[in-house]
Amino acid sequence: MPAIHLVTELPGPKSRALVARREAAMPSGAAKLTGLAIAHAHGATMTDLDGNTVLDFAGGIGMLAVGHTPENVVAALQKQAAELVHMCSIIATHESAVLLAERLNALAPGPAPKRTALMNSGAEALETAVHICRASTKRQGVVVFEGAYHGRTNLTLAMTSKFNLFKKGFGPFAPEVYRLPFPTMYRRPPATTEAEWIDWHCQQLDHSFTAYVDPTHVACVVVEPVQGEGGFLPAPAAWLRKLRALCDQHGMLLVADEVQCGMGRTGKLWACEHAGVVPDVITTAKSLGAGMPISAIVGRADVMDAPHPGGLGGTYSGSPMACVAALAALDIITAPAFLARANELAAMIRARLEALQARFPRLIGDVRGLGPMLAIELVKDPATKEPWLEATQAVNAETLTRGLVTIRAGLYSNCVRLLPPLNLTDAEVSEAMDVLDASVAAVAGRLGAA
Ligand SMILES: Cc1ncc(COP(=O)(O)O)c(C=O)c1O
Fold this sequence. Notes:
The protein is of the alpha/beta class. It is 39% helix and 17% strand. The mean pLDDT is 97.
């Protein structure tokens, strides 16, 4: 039986009515990618108010590696809700937070002893990571990269790259943030090999630490091992290793922002494992909480202990509800069969995307990602690589009409990114890819790119 089951057009009348109330009650600036209103969800499927069941390949923007409402997460939440909903960890300690910190400390790469601070969102984790690195190094500078997305608070907006969508009208932004180029393989100059492009970027790092900021001023270098919002761009392993070496040489701390690419999304628990690079600090969130708002900063104990006692905290940090959900999610994600399945999915989905690119070479400029974290980039012309925003919006709209939720990504908003649960069935993969095929075919036909 297919997973997608549609009884009205999408969005249906009840979704439209609730979204209209949302628009009247909430600010128009609040981001909204679809007109769906959801009643309940399980695994890879969501059912809307009209009774339509759709496949969810947006996963709350990468929040649901374990899928919607896994049984063990729901059971842990129900049990916890009956016992203790909230315990502000500034006031007293609850075992779930300690267990989660112990667990993340043990899972983080590298032999150094670790500490974990718990927060509520990805942006808060990034802000806190920067505070910790500044306290540890007694330096101010923060190095980030083109295409980066780190959140929407003032400091993380300063660290985020794309201006028009995220930053317009919101400045001034926090100072002491230095942005360097990111090695985007697809957009390398013609006649340059991948190896030459990576070499150029490694040399550019040396140059940048003279041209833009002195390394002795830099507290931390913050990098997404695979850029998420930036368009699913894996950082080349050699370049990440060069960053690690420069950090070691100059006493800068390396922060891996794994809010989107971590927790199994790339087929390994941590994306930085692919390059064999051990960061000093890792930020994690999204899939860690299986839908509950929680983030963590996991780092070397000597670095994490730098802030003065009382310097870190928050009313909700380490909430028992979020912590038991995270512990249950980790039970799923750390089971070897889970990552094995994620890698099977990677092979299946990549094969389908490459076949689609072979059918529509004028439209699909690139198929890329790491493991099952995969996207396609849509262009007007594969030779000029001119981004095709309208085609991307059209593909997202087509898949939605047919019952598959997909979202865009990329500096030019011209990538369709896939963030499904990592325990999909073969049948769900085939069904979703069939919808994507049909949607791309429809858009290519309509826009003259077939
Ligand atoms: C890499 C990365 N860092 C930070 C964030 C911010 O997370 P949040 O939306 O939970 O603040 C995101 C969110 O998409 C992200 O992808």
